[in-house]
What does this fold into?
Amino acid sequence: MREVLMMRFSEIHLKGLNRPYFMRMLVERIKEAVKEVHGHVWLSDSRVYVSAADDMDEALRRTRKVFGVHSVCRAVEMDKGDFAAVCEQAVSLLKDKQGSFKVEARRSDKRYPLDSMDLNREIGHYILEKLPHLTVDVHMPDHRVYVEIRDHAYLYSEYLDAVGGMPVGTGGRAMVLLSGGIDSPVAAWMIAKRGVTMSAVHFLSPPYTSERAKDKVLSLAKILSESLCGWNVYLVPFTDIQMQIHEKCHADYTTVIMRRYMMRIANRIAKKEHAQALVTGESIGQVASQTMHALQCTDSVSELPVFRPLIGFDKQEIVDIAVKIGTFETSSLPYEDCCTVFTPRHPATKPKLDIILDGESKLDGEALMEAAILNTEIIRV
It folds into this structure.
């Protein structure tokens, strides 16, 4: 008898003949997640298991963050042939409880002599004999005992929801424009949840942005890395480009022109990462640069498709997800990023392309972008 973590998956069941590939990827992601606590991971009969971790609490926390895992429980694994011991373990799970209970048994091994209904009845009867202060309620019990008969018997009293989605690495590659704000980390998390391997590009504007702003972004990347299985963060010096835009372009158009140059640079770096798309945290109308007109002007310079998973979300919905995934507190630290530098008083909400192109014609755009990319710092998080 030993304690194990038992994980379920859901969407992977729909993959037909490709399911073994998705399962292998899920097992690999779970192995990466529990590597530091020395957990042993294996797949058996539509479940993934972890045992022998140095810290089972930490292993549980980590596995719940792995995309592709639907739920996790701490179970006792034991010999299914010793039915008396199985019943005793069920009693042990309820011995400190009060109120009502229900046994929910599942028999995956069809050769086992008792079917699910027999298991429910026999184990429930044994519990009532040993713990007469409890009662049975099959509709709304206070407590549940779960029994699964597989290669072994597995007993547990609760299971915890995990993040779901698909294993990272099964859905292609994308690059997120990662600011220090609330939205873009949420966007990165949502796209990664669909199995996409992520990398990030962040634009720095020293001395107008501080080292603390850089550290903030790397902290966000670290928080996300537990679900993203590690990723590359490209730190691009953007001050020279911003200064030229500020000095030579129409004041109301500086934000949208800045965003266009960010897109151009992100496209070039994304190609080095073999990414098939860019990701941003924009939602319609949240700020001046996120109107339909502005987004059209921004997208026109991108060679790659731009995914915006938050496009129809309001701010509170985004905040709720940020709180859930653990990025909100760090995102709320008051360190400015480059998007808040040189912000015009009256940014254009319906920018005209001819004015944008006129402004960009006054810039040394190609040389500035080459210099920025050349001096980009790459950090593996």
